[in-house]
Amino acid sequence: MRRREFIKLLGGTAAGWPLAARAQQPERMRRIGVLMNIAENDPQSMVWASAFVRGLEERSWTLGGNMKIEYRWAAGNANLNRRFASELVALAPDVILVVGGSGVSALQQVTRTIPIVFVGTTNPVNRGLIANMERPGGNTTGFIEFEFSMGGKWLELLKQIAPSVSRVAVVRDPGQFSGSDQLTAIEMAAPSFSVEVSPVDARDGIEMERTITTFARGSNGGLIVTQSAFSVAHSELIIALATQHKLPAVYFDRFFVTGGGLISYAADFVDQFRRAASYVDRILKGEKPADMPVQAPTKYELVINLKTAKALGLNVPPTLLARADEVIE
Fold first, then answer.
1. Mean pLDDT of the chain
2. How far apart are CA 130 and CA 201, in angstroms?
3. CA-CA distance, 128 to 105, in Å (whole number)?
4. What does the alpha-carbon distance between residue 104 and residue 118 come to, in Å, rounded to a whole number?
5. What domains are defined for the chain?
6. pLDDT of 236-273, one tens digit each?
7. CA-CA distance, 202 to 70, in Å (whole number)?
């Protein structure tokens, strides 16, 4: 048989294969990049990663089957964020999940085409990460961690659980965009609670310890720990300082309270990873980030540690206990 006739026959045969046989052809492996803002050995790392994977599996994606995930762990380090952003983009993934606004900025500096889904980010419009919340434009969309008013809510809870507090130290990362926003929200609410606010600009653990120790020498002090990769990385030190100096403290995430902190009020961060999985699924199926609205949290958690409250000599109001999603005894 001549070569031309053989190719013609092969083409005709393939066209005649039954649909079921063609459907059995292996599905293309999709690659997903993940840029975390915490360390790989952080207790939260596997919790977040597992929630994301479960969310994908619920939508028929299987690790090692039709998807592969490439993780990078920046541990709150800006240099690592930039390095890992470049590494992930070089792998040419179909979509990248990123935690934190600094990671989004690092990724946008190296790609404007690979779809990006973020969680744990605040004020993405003001930061220039997206055009607007409803139609973000570009290659980026996702889920904000909390709204601007959250700072006032933290202060309100601190006064409810420790009414005598009249001075509040606010731990924030001055190098992080959201640090200023969270502080501003707390400062705006402070006059209505007759509270004096003192920022603690956390650049390293030694500086933070020195500043909090100095603050604690005064009376009627309390602490608010705002969201930042720095606070996550130094969570044990922050909890230890609050305990040592008997400072009632409100935290931005429940894991501080399960680790011995007093009280937290925050969006359910694990839920954000599950919701992010739904956006990654939609992008893998052809939707564009530019047309997918950025969403606010839908679930919030109030967590109280009664053991810590007792150690601080605080009587938690029954109304506050009744509102709690979790009480640690």
1. 89
2. 27
3. 9
4. 7
5. 30-146+268-299 (3.40.50.2300), 150-267+301-328 (3.40.50.2300)
6. 999 999 999 999 999 998 889 999 999 999 888 899 99
7. 31
Identify whether the C-beta of residue 294 lies closer than 8 Å to the C-beta of residue 133: yes
Would you state the pLDDT for residue 178? 63
CB proximity list for 194: less than 8 A, separation 6 or greater: 166
Is residue 34 scored above 50 in pLDDT?
yes
Strands 167-172 and 196-201: parallel
Which pLDDT does position 182 carry in this prediction? 83
Among 85-89, 164-168, 263-267, name the one with the lowest average pLDDT. 263-267
